[in-house]
Fold:
Amino acid sequence: MAFSWVTIFLDFPGDAFEPGVAFWREVTGSGLSPSRGEAGEFATLLPPDGNAYLRVQRIFDGAGGCHLDLHVDLTAESLAEAAARAVTLGARMHDREDDEVIILDSPGGFTFCVVPWDGEMTVPGPVAAAEAGASRVAQLTLDVPPGGYEREVSFWAALTGWDPRPGPEPEYTFLTRPAGIPAGLLLQRRQAAAPDDRVRGHVDLQCADIRRTADWHASLGARVTATYPWGIVATDPVGRPYCCLG
Structure:
């Protein structure tokens, strides 16, 4: 059963929450919803148009990163059924919060949630900045340790029902998102395993002008760490990696 929407969460530890949220609000042209959660740890980045698909979370343990929410049409499949399907494919379920969210890890350890779909269907457009032209967060990249790459690709393709297609290099696989889904998935094979050997995630922005966008971000506190023919790698003001792509 296909998912009806996806949400990317940007997870910030402790004191990184306010500066991190301020940066991502600016570069996405977003408003910010009221805080929610027992400790006010959640908020939504509200786009100028369309339905929201970016959210932020203050975490109280760990270094932060990204996680993904997959939205389930409850008229077609229950959250429990979606979670059971994920477990059958190799996921591990480790928490459930009433009937609102089930938290799982992919075979490689990337955290995702299945949540109810609230009828979102309008993909926000790019946001134009006078300094840099238009851009939008268009993709979540999963950075996969080399030993688990094929399994992770197979898992996400089967879970989402999105067709995998080769990227420009052997270490990349795109999952072809359906029309009406706000962000795609790219899996990238890392050259070496991280110390804990878990799958990590970062967001990619699609930019009308990569260099001008990166320069604008740098003026807001980001730092360019590498430049390639296909794009620019940067870190935001609190050290979160991301990419600017054409």
In short: The CA atoms of residues 1 and 77 lie 7 Å apart. The domain at 127-245 is CATH 3.10.180.10 (2,3-Dihydroxybiphenyl 1,2-Dioxygenase; domain 1). DSSP finds four helices and 17 strands in the chain. The helical segments are 17-28, 79-88, 149-160, 210-219.
